[in-house]
């Protein structure tokens, strides 16, 4: 019976003794100490040897029998099941054979081969200009808590699965909000509530593209959307972007192009706003090619000095535009709630696909959000956030003018929650070193190069660029972060033998807050 001695360091009778006995016997079955057909130690003898109650040992034996490791019968001695090839339980060392690569579907192999940016796992920095992040202190905690408590206490007949298209109350609230705030008229039945804009894009990719198709895509553009479309096996047709957004004159004429992805209200990342002439050209192109337009309105509520630009969907008379909206920028990316406004003929299949993916989005959060929209609290919150983020934007532009080199350029300032900073004294290959050097000084900045899909035309050079989000920082943090970044850029310039000037200028363009100047064109 000595083979059943408890592992060193364990105490007989301690909480979890039954689990340790279970693990011990499973390990001995796995390594052959207790071979198939052998008699298991009696519960009485094992309990006496280990100093635990017989009830504890019996419970472990019953679990092993239920899982098929032991064979028991009334009046008979328990025996090891035969034949067995039992894996060692977690935490028990056992020899491991080398495993071959998993067999994946074509889709799985494409996903495995996609180049994706690493998830942030480094230590957080004090001045993090992460785009897509918003300040936790900006969340409307009191209003959300009141609405959440009211919905939580609301009596329901039962807790069951909800419709895949989302709660009717939220879809009706969105119908009214989109008409008021974004100039978009639709029926509530056309709204599909999803887990953020990323799921919306993924559904579009899966339902509208096949391997061998092609899609037009802004260059530079949102990498996660491009990867979603590429995962289907479709080919990316990179379409250049200039200071006015997507260059519609460069749209591909390939009939294999099934859709185009655009961010017309605030092009990501360069910030251009697609003018009405190009919007009409884009709609005409989609009609000629029988293609869909995915309009991602990721931060369309945040426009400064003017009311938000109406959506592309609002002038679509042919039913070509699929509108994607999200609450990630106005409330929180952690909420994971977004929505699609679909052409009527796509509604049934998108609902079915949503049902297959995850049934539906969280019901309680949908009802809370509907209550906030219907009460007007959500729109008041958006107006307050617009004012607050305008202050942050002004602080960022002032910091660039005061602390960064004279040839620095900023684009995308008219709207949204981020800008792109161009540094003509540095080349794209310097972005990685610049990001690392800034992070070592507690400043988080992010390179623009991964957002480009195509190769630049021969002879056309591009400066190093950074995408700077400012919605999660205070005015003071923004100013201090820019001061440190300026020192880092100066140090890199000295290392490369370049002069560093700080005279408060950026480049030609319209006047910016703080005495600097912002470049009026996003074209690189």
From TrEMBL:
Species of origin reads Cupriavidus necator (strain ATCC 17699 / DSM 428 / KCTC 22496 / NCIMB 10442 / H16 / Stanier 337) (Ralstonia eutropha)
Q: So what EC number does this one have?
A: 2.6.1.-
Q: What region holds the HTH gntR-type domain?
A: 15-83
Q: Which keywords accompany this UniProt record?
A: Aminotransferase, DNA-binding, Pyridoxal phosphate, Transcription, Transcription regulation, Transferase
> Where are the bilayer-spanning segments?
none
InterPro entries named in the record: Aminotransferase_I/II_large, HTH_trans_reg/aminotransferase, PyrdxlP-dep_Trfase, PyrdxlP-dep_Trfase_major, Tscrpt_reg_HTH_GntR, WH-like_DNA-bd_sf, WH_DNA-bd_sf
- Give the protein family: In the C-terminal section; belongs to the class-I pyridoxal-phosphate-dependent aminotransferase family.
What name goes with this protein? Transcriptional regulator, MocR family
Tell me if Transferase is a UniProt keyword of this record: yes
- Could you give a GO molecular-function term held by this entry? DNA binding
Kindly give the CDD domains that the UniProt entry links to this protein: AAT_like, WHTH_GntR
User: Which enzyme type, at the first EC level?
Assistant: transferase
UniProt-listed Pfam families: Aminotran_1_2, GntR
Give the start-end ranges of region Disordered.
499-524
